[in-house]
Amino acid sequence: MFCHAIWRAQQPVRLEKLCFKKDAVRRRTAAQSTFFHGVRANSRFWLSKSLDGQSIVSKVVQNDGALSLRGTLHVDREEKAAFLELQNGSDIRGVALAAEGSRNRVTLTPSRSAEIAGAFARWLKRMRSEETATASVPARALRVAVGRDPRLSGAQLRDAVICALQNEGCEVFDVGLATTPAMFMSTVLGGFEYDGALMLTASHLPPDRNGMKFFTRQGGTDKKQIRMLLEDAYEHSTLRDAYHIDGLTAYVAAPRRVDLMSAYASYLRECIQRSIRSSSRSTEPLGGAHIIVDAGNGAAGFFATDVLAPLGADITGSQFLDPDGSFPNHVPNPEDQLAMRMACEAVLKSGADLGIVFDTDGDRCGFVDRDGKAINRNRLIALLAAIVLREHPGATILTDSVTSNGLAEFIRSHGGRHFRYRKGYKNIIDKACELNESGIDCPLAIETSGHGAMRENYMLDDGAYLAVKIVSELINLRSQGDNNGIVSLIEGLSEPLEEREFRLNLLTENYKETGKMIVDAFHDFVVGSGAPKGWTLERENYEGWRVAVEELDGRAGWLLLRQSLHDPLLPLNVESETLGGVAHICRILYGWAKPRFADVLDLSPLEKVLS
Fold it and tell me: A GO molecular-function term, please (predicted)?
């Protein structure tokens, strides 16, 4: 629905007087407001109502004379920047709710979400055109699935993206509450096999955030593709046919509701049944096993009720299975200390054989052994490596850059090769695919965050599938007479005595250039004549610089300084096998950095350790 305002000749009009709001772009003060000047009578511009009830300028129309606009380029630059700032590596993240007392501005509005979904549809169309250019394939509408985690903003954003997809001619299937891996599976599972899937989630981020992930049967989007979608979304938002749907009172057509999660749960149950090598109870192979799930009120509670319980497992003691987008009990994150502590307590209280902790959208997991000890980060990687290397002797296990020295030795001791690559789940997945295509056997790619992808499962980072592997192994060990649980698989894993991660904020606007300059200078410091004794640059580095540190009695620590993938800061990881070793390493680094970079790098996290 459009409304219009008539420009008076030569009379400047202040945009804010016309209720102009540029979709949560940084608001300027009255003194900074942009002015439009019409040089003839009867010039006019159109306003349209956006999905979140705000008004945006969609078209400037000249009736009978030239129309001169001052300041519009500045507005356009701000709006384009607002779109591009939504990129979070290979997906979309932004603030979707105005939380009480928060200063965070809403950046992922329904209207922007609609534009991004529309860009996804147009991209799918282009790919379809390329695939069918030389083939005789009957034309049909693209079929796209839409799912979401339980975030409070999810329903509103779902309505926006469905409307945009329908406006692009897609047939839309509303999955409802889902996990991210299930949305990929909607493109390959029999009976579904959609052309594309869109998941609304912001993983473990606070309740006011939300985001978008995109899939085709080839996998998830990469960074370049997300940038392309955002640029296309912005360009479309400036056109007359941008998505301006008044009040979202109705869809173009009612989307079809489909029960994807039941089919996905069935797939996971079948995987468990195939993986258990010997069982006299084919219908209930988990009979006698006590396994609890902590879903953190996210979307993965189904794993307890729809996967484990139907196979005979006792799930008594499972907690926070009901979806609640306010996440009232703890952050759904297997790296979060409170989440893991509460899961450990639940395992001990219930006497369970195993605990499983999922993140909000089910693509990450952590575990708890029967003694109430957390199995995440390096311990989780070691556990999966032990399973995988038995199935694939001599294989390469690919991890991110911050894994421990002890893990590398553990993998070598089990006959495998450790390939330490870069942070970012899409980075490690893409690298694993590259290795496999080149003939290097790489069945597992996993981050310390719990993102783990297996070649046998579409190289998809799926926390539920990792749980399938470990639950199956628990039963296999028991059938062999080993009742110690899965922890027996990581015997011999050496763990650091101390470990810390510091996030050193960059204090300049051109933080990328400044960060690169500091990281380069760190390299020169380590390889130069004034390098600390016992500090040696490691042979393979794919992001930042990792340095081996000789410690007393043949022990070894390390530190890694790198640029953040998304934020204006430098992460610093430090590990040591000696008491006080982290502080000793930090003292040397602080002594080097303070006289050189104190004006552009916040060193206070190191100062707290040293004090």
Answer: phosphomannomutase activity
Quote the pLDDT of residue 137. 55
Question: What token pair was written down for 595?
Answer: 């006289």
Neighbours of 298 (CB within 10 A): 29
- With CA atoms as reference, report the closest residue to 25 among 57, 69, 60: 57
- Nearest Cα neighbor of 367 from 350, 351, 384 is 384
Average predicted confidence (pLDDT) for the chain: 87
pLDDT digit string (tens) for 448-466? 999 999 999 999 999 999 9
Distance between first and last Cα of the chain? 62
- Model confidence pLDDT, tens digit, residues 335-355: 999 999 999 999 999 999 999
- Calculate the CA 434 to chain-centre distance: 21
Closest CA to 561 of 545, 581, 575: 545
Buried b / exposed e over 495-515, threshold 16 CB at 10 Å, is bbebbbebebbbeeeebeebb
Query: What does the DSSP 8-state code read for residue 43?
Result: -
pTM: 0.86
Q: Within 10 Å of residue 353's Cβ, how many Cβ atoms? A: 22
Helices (H), 296-357: 302, 337-350
Question: Domain map of the chain by residue range?
Answer: 2-70, 88-131+139-258, 262-490, 498-610
Q: Take residue 118 and report the two structure tokens written for it.
A: 């529309």
* pLDDT given at position 273: 95
| pLDDT higher than threshold 70 for residue 60 | no
The three-class DSSP label of residue 214 is strand
Nearest to 582, CA basis, from 503, 474, 500, 507: 500
Q: Which amino acid is at 307?
A: V
CATH number of 88-131+139-258: 3.40.120.10
